[in-house]
Structure formats: structure tokens, C-alpha cells
Amino acid sequence: MPTPRFFADKICPVRAKRERRKEARPGELLAAALDLFVEKGFAATRAEEVAARAGVSKGTLFLYFPSKEELFKAVVVENLGGRFAEWNDEFEAFEGTTADMLRYCMRVWWERVGMTKASGLTKLMMSEGTNFPELAEFYRKEVVRPGHTLLRRILQRGIDRGEFAPVDVDHAIYAVVAPMVFLMLWKHSAMVCVDEETSLDPEKYLATQAETVLYGLTRPQGAAA
């Protein structure tokens, strides 16, 4: 039997379309904000520009996000911070070696974040974080700390299983973070980090960096535990 919503849509298609549009608005605003924050930076982006790009009024934007700061926080959670539950579930379910897990982690990071516009949020925070300490702390809480915690779990898994040599995990995670940060700077800085005569394949670069890290972590054959 058709639902009441079905009859409402048939009777008043304009109202039904308006309601569906209203439901989609937060996502449209977040997408527009991500585009502008990455293109112009946080300070230079104006709320009315975000609203215009999303096709709504400035007042409508503030119905969903009371300030530009809250809008930025929502963009960070939507594109980065909110994904750690999924990534931790993948960690729990992974059945291969820890070396393969680390390779997978770096490759998937590029596919899901590094090659997308969301990677520009990291460059933005690196360049503007000192001017907006509250946002910088929010970014550390939602992105940096969960990311480092996940990397610690990966490295500690390898150590506990005897696959990796015992290392200072708190510092070893930066050996994994560094090539990711480099790629984000390369992508969002007109690629000036690389000689224009040299072609950089991000996937090959990360695969090479993963092997470099792993050869430094893997316990040599026959070495004492």
C-alpha cells in the first residue's frame, strides 16, 4: 500500500522537492565549504561565498552552522575525523601480516584522502593553524590524535607479533606520516616540491616509502628476539 509520503509527493510535488532539497542542504553546504576552504584558505573564505556556491542565502547557511568556525569543524569531521571508526574496524578485521597492513594503510589513505580535496585541509591547518588556535586544537583532536593512535596500533601489532623490531613507536609513526604530508604539500602547492622534469607517481612514491619504512622496521632474519 502506498505510504502517506507517496500521496503527499503526488499531491504536492513542489513541496516534496523542497523537502528533499532541505534534507540535502547540509551536505551541499559542506561540499561548497570544502571547495572554498581548500581554494582560498580559512581566513579568506567568507560565509556568503559558501552560501552562494551552495545556492542558498547566508541566513540559510547560519541555520545549519552558526558560524564559519563551526562550518569548518563540520567539514573536518565530514571529510577526515568521521572516518576513523571505519578505519579502526578495518584494522580489527585485517588478517594479513603487519607489513601488508602498513602498505594497505598508506595506499588506502591516498585513495580515500590524499588524492581528494580533503587533503587540502591539512595544508590549510599547517599554514593558518597558528592564527586560529581553537581550530588547530580541534584538528589535532579530531584528526591528528586518532590518526597517530591508529598508526601506533599498527606498529605495535608488528612488534607484538615479532614481525617488527622493537622501536620507539611514538617517534616511528612520523616515518609513516612524513611521506603522506609531503604528498599533500606537493598536491596543493602547485607541485613545486618536485623538479618539473621529474614525474612523480603518488602511488609508486608511497609504495617506495612503505618499503623504506618496512626495511627499517622488520627484524633481520635470524636476529634474537
TrEMBL record:
The record's GO molecular-function terms, alphabetically, read: DNA-binding transcription factor activity; transcription cis-regulatory region binding
**One Pfam family of this chain:** TetR_C_11
Q: Which UniProt keywords apply?
A: DNA-binding, Transcription, Transcription regulation
SUPFAM superfamilies the UniProt entry points to: Homeodomain-like, Tetracyclin repressor-like, C-terminal domain
Return the annotated DNA-binding positions: 46-65
- InterPro entries given for it? Homeodomain-like_sf, HTH-type_TetR-like_transc_reg, HTH_TetR, Tet_transcr_reg_TetR-rel_C_sf, TetR_C
Q: Which residues form the HTH tetR-type domain?
A: 23-83
User: Looking at the keywords, is DNA damage present?
Assistant: no
Query: Does this entry carry the keyword DNA-binding?
Result: yes
Q: What is this protein called?
A: HTH-type transcriptional regulator RutR
Q: Which gene encodes it?
A: rutR1
